Amino acid sequence: MTVANAVALRIEKLLRQKNMTQYRLEKNSSIQHGSLQCIMNGRTKTVTLSTVIMLARGFDMSLLEFLDDEVFTCEVLEIE
User: Fold this and answer.
1) Which of 39, 43, 65, 67 is an S-S bond match for 61, by CB 3.0 to 4.6 Å?
2) Are 28 and 58 in contact (CB under 8 A)?
3) Is residue 75 in a domain?
4) 74 within some domain
5) Which residue, 6, 25, 27, is CA-closest to 72?
6) Which pLDDT tens digit goes with each residue over 21-61?
């Protein structure tokens, strides 16, 4: 699994947990709709740290809280 795939899975999980829409996340994080769609659809091959920080802020959590998930286990991730 790529880092971009892992980020998309984490977003899906948090949207369900927080009962939040993708639209609300876009507004809270200031990420453009097209950019988030590319992440969620797997068209984005890389996700920058600044984007991950913006996503964490959109979920009202720290970067460490966002990354604190088994999907980010180093053994699972493919590093491009």
Assistant:
1) 65
2) yes
3) no
4) no
5) 6
6) 999 999 999 999 999 999 999 998 889 999 999 999 999 99
Nearest to 10 by CA among 71, 51, 58: 71
- DSSP one-letter string for 16-64: HHTT--HHHHHHHHT--HHHHHHHHHT--S---HHHHHHHHHHTTS-HH
- C-alpha 66/C-alpha 80 separation (Å) is 21
Bridge partner list, 2: 78
Token code pair at residue 48: 């920058």
Which CATH number belongs to the domain containing residue 47 in this structure? 1.10.260.40
Q: Tokens representing 55?
A: 């996503």
The domain total for the chain is 1
